[in-house]
Amino acid sequence: MTTKARSPVTAGSIVVPYGHVVGNEKWRGSEISQRLQADLVAGDEFKRRLVRFRNASSLGGIVIVERTQISDQYFLAVQKLVVLELGMVLLPVANQGEASQLIIQLVREQSKDRSSNPFLHKQCSQLAEASVFRTVQQIPGVGKTKALLLLQQFGSIHRLCNASVKELEPVVGQTVAQQIYTFFTLCS
């Protein structure tokens, strides 16, 4: 297996070296932290760090959460933050041993030849779609809902860029249609 030099991911004040994870303070000295190098985070600080990481990085992170009978009361709030608000993947585990096995399996899958797994190609296209979606949201006057409608109607940024005001109006209304048209005509 060859080792590729990768630069650390920097998200605000957080620097996560390639191959490292960010974990909760309660896991300090545990089996999982002994097997993995982790930046341990105390209490609710993980929320701020996740938001900063997501905003500063184009990478899609995976959040692993210990879900037990005791922690179950907090799970829905964490799930809402991670999945719905940040658009990251949330993987609940029962204990630290399961978490370490999951991380080991994820590392093994990432290091395999991608052409041998047909499901990884679909994952790459989903990442591209998410990137296009975020790009369309950067157009003035376009939020999540309108970006989704525009991509459903036009299918690509290229077709959206070449759309006339009359083609845009039924999808987003007259004012936003004019803003989009002006945005693309001023850029070119």
Automatic annotation (TrEMBL):
Keywords: DNA damage, DNA repair. The keyword Protein biosynthesis does not apply. Residues 139-185 form the DisA/LigA helix-hairpin-helix motif domain. The keyword Zinc does not apply. InterPro entries: DisA/LigA_HHH, FAAP24, PND, RuvA_2-like. CDD domains: XPF_nuclease_FAAP24. Pfam families: HHH_2, PND. Residues 37-107 form the Fanconi anemia core complex-associated protein 24 pseudonuclease domain. It comes from the Eukaryota. PANTHER family: FANCONI ANEMIA CORE COMPLEX-ASSOCIATED PROTEIN 24 (PTHR31786:SF2). This is Fanconi anemia core complex-associated protein 24 isoform X2. It comes from Apteryx mantelli.
